[in-house]
Structures are given as C-alpha cells and as structure tokens.
Automatic annotation (TrEMBL):
Annotated ranges, domain Aminoacyl-transfer RNA synthetases class-II family profile: 1-324
Pfam families: HGTP_anticodon, tRNA-synt_His
UniProt keyword annotations, A-Z: Aminoacyl-tRNA synthetase, ATP-binding, Cytoplasm, Ligase, Nucleotide-binding, Protein biosynthesis
E.C. numbers: 6.1.1.21
The keyword Cell division belongs to this UniProt entry's keyword annotation: no
Gene field: hisS
Descriptive protein name: Histidine--tRNA ligase
Highest taxon, organism lineage: Bacteria
Cellular component per GO, a single term: cytoplasm
Signal peptide: none
Catalysed reactions listed for this entry: tRNA(His) + L-histidine + ATP = L-histidyl-tRNA(His) + AMP + diphosphate + H(+)
GO biological process terms held by the UniProt record: histidyl-tRNA aminoacylation
Taxonomic lineage from the root: Bacteria, Bacillati, Actinomycetota, Actinomycetes, Kitasatosporales
Localization, UniProt: Cytoplasm
Subunit text: Homodimer.
Amino acid sequence: MSVFQAPRGTYDLLPPDSATYLAVREAIAAPLRNSGYGYVETPGFENVELFARGVGESTDIVTKEMYAFETKGGDRLALRPEGTASVLRAALEASLHKQGVLPVKLWYSGSYYRYEKPQKGRYRHFSQVGAEAIGAEDPALDAELIILADQAYRSLGLRQFRILLNSLGDKECRPVYREKLQEFLRGLDLDEDTRRRVEINPLRVLDDKRPEVQRQLTGAPSLRESLCEACRAYHQEVRELLTEEGVSFTDDEKLVRGLDYYTRTTFEFVHDGLGSQSAVGGGGRYDGLSEMIGGPALPSVGWALGVDRTVLALEAEGVRLDLPAPTSVFAVPLGEQARRVLFGVVTQLRRKGVAADFAYGGRGLKGAMKVANRSGARYAIVAGERDLAEGIVQLKDMESGEQSPVPLSAVVTEIEARLS
Ligand code: HAM
C-alpha cells in the first residue's frame, strides 16, 4: 500500500520550517496583546447560516468555497472559512458587549478552510491571525488596527508590502452608489456570469482583474465621489491619523474585498514578491454585521493576516528570522551508567527552564555528536564510566570546540551561568 498524502490544497508544517510559522504567529499577536486585545478561540465549525448571512450569500466564499456538511444529527454546519463572523457570534452569545466598556477587543489565531483552486499561496487549509474591535465607531480604532498590522510586518523585517485603503460607504450612501453603478454596468458588453454579478454584487465587478473588463470600466461612477458627508469625514480622519503616525498607504478606489459585511474603511496588505496571491492580509469595518446575525447595532472593525502568505513574503524578501536554537544543551552518555546519570542531568536542566535534549538509542560517540551538532545546541555534556568514576562530566562548547571537565554536582549551575 502506498503512503497516504495530505489532501489536495493542504500541506504539513514540519520542523525546522514550522518554527518560522510559530514565530510569525507570535510576531503578529505581540502588538495586539500589547494594545488591549484579549485572546479568543472559537470552534473550527459553525452553523452554516452564520456564514451565509454574515459573509454573504452572493460571495464566492459562501457559494463556492465553503466546506458545508450535515451531521448525523441533522445539523447543517460548515468548516469556518474566516474568523470574523465566529468571533462576533461568540462575543454576542457571551454578551461581552454588555460587560464593560466598548470596544471589546479580541484577537485569534487558527485554521480556516476554503475549497479554492489550489496554487502557490492559495490553499484549502490555511492559517490566520486576526483581530476584531467590536462595538465602537471611531476612526482612531480603524487606524490603530492598520498601524498594528504594519508594526507586526515590520517587526518581522518585511519591507516590500503596501497598504491599500478605501471606503465603501455606509447604509446611507452605498445603496445610492450601488444603483448608479448597476445602471452603468448594465450598459456594458459583459459575459453572463459577470452580468449576474452586476445584479447581485455590482461592486465586485470593479475588482474584476480581466483587462477587457477593466477597459470598459473607465468612466464608471466613482465610489469616492458618492460617499456621504459622514463617510467622507470619517475616511479623511483615518487617513490623517495614519499619515501622522508615519504609516504610508495607497488610496485604492477599486478595493472591494470578497466579503459582503464591509462598510466604510476597507484595507488590504499586499506584498510585491508574491505574484497573483499578493494579499497577505486584509480587513475593514463591518458596522452592520452584528444586526445581520441577530445582534444589536455594534459597529466594529478588524483584520486577518494570512500566516502562510506572510511566510512566503519572508521567503520572497530573503528575510531569515533570527530564531533561537530549540536546544541549548545536548547530553551524550557513553555507557549504561552514564545514561542514567545524564538522563538525570537533562531532567534537572529542563526543570530549570534550560532547553535540553539527550542522545537516545544508545549510539556511539561519533553518531551521538553528530546529532548534538544538528540540534544546534550550544553545549554538549559528554560522560563515560571513567569520567563518572572521577565525579566529573565533559562540557563541550560547540561553538569554540573547547572541552573542559566540570564536577557532576556543579554542571547544572555551570551551564545556567554560562547561558545567562
Ligand atoms: P480575507 O481577505 O478573506 O479576510 O483573508 C485574510 C487573509 O487570509 C488573506 O489576506 C490571506 O493572506 C489569507 N487567506 C485567505 N484565503 C486564503 C487561502 N485560500 N490560502 C492562503 N491564505 C489565505 C478575512 O478572512 C476577514 N475575516 C478579515 C477581517 C477580519 N475583516 C474584518 N475582520
């Protein structure tokens, strides 16, 4: 029988590369933790209706890409394609919005699932770290989130990314614009699929990447010029706050995003080294989502950054993260008695918080030293019967190659001192 393979559109995270993924998650989470966001975790699946209503019946995510299924008990569920609807559902269910000051600020990290056509940077199982600030309408909150994402990417050493920024208007001005746009689009020479989109979700047509469609879009009514006064002022304030904090962005009137819940501010982080799947993260304001899923009016804003694509962006820029070696000390016992003694030393080191590992499987000195080398450990402890008879172990500095005898009783404190 041949070995099973990971399902199409998925891949495994394995050491040593998996360490980079963990570091990326951590780097994105750090500025959030530092800015009042609390950690939230929700189930990997939800009632399918939550996404249908929240993300939007007309979106590709809901119509084509959702892993929806019926359980043996007859529940209609879907693997989560995104995090915002779930996080808001959880906050509403626990009445977090009634328990303190608003906004409720939450961050999350996890797996998401979309049945997309796989290609580099586009997977059926992928990972996001996200943040949602629920229940406040304040341009400074939109700016805060964009600044924190920018800070996260910069802390990873990324430079070749750009921020695209737009405003999609609100429930006052967007319907008016939508109608104006529809009228314009109905007069164009479009294929049947696109004509259908004109009727269901005309703003998405602006985002069509095909040149023959883009060519026809010159002269389309401008979204920016259709914004009502309140939306215009709000957007201007977000832009000014970003500029004041030194975060540069590009105004992109065509940035519509693939989820229906957005109102006002929308933004995307794109990386220039990634080819067609260039969006490393995105988000925006979703002032109406709470009501769409049965809650009270709770204007909110958030983003999600793709971990997989952020790792690809690091590769594209040739950035290597400065990750600490997973092991600081590697113990190499020579003989049965040494095995027991050094196993004890390794256990003590670990209890003191020193990352330590052990040559298992009774290899010879040469083989074991090779493993010690590969582990990246700074120090190796080597001991045979003769050393133990003298009450010592050999402590080898793997960087300089220097080796010196250390009393067995002092080896843990000696290593701690040298590593500190
Ligand atoms: P999204 O733009 O659909 O937004 O996804 C955010 C990020 O997740 C993308 O920029 C990309 O990096 C990553 N991503 C999405 N799909 C895939 C895929 N198939 N393979 C690899 N990476 C992928 C959202 O999900 C919204 N919930 C963001 C948000 C939060 N808006 C407000 N709050």
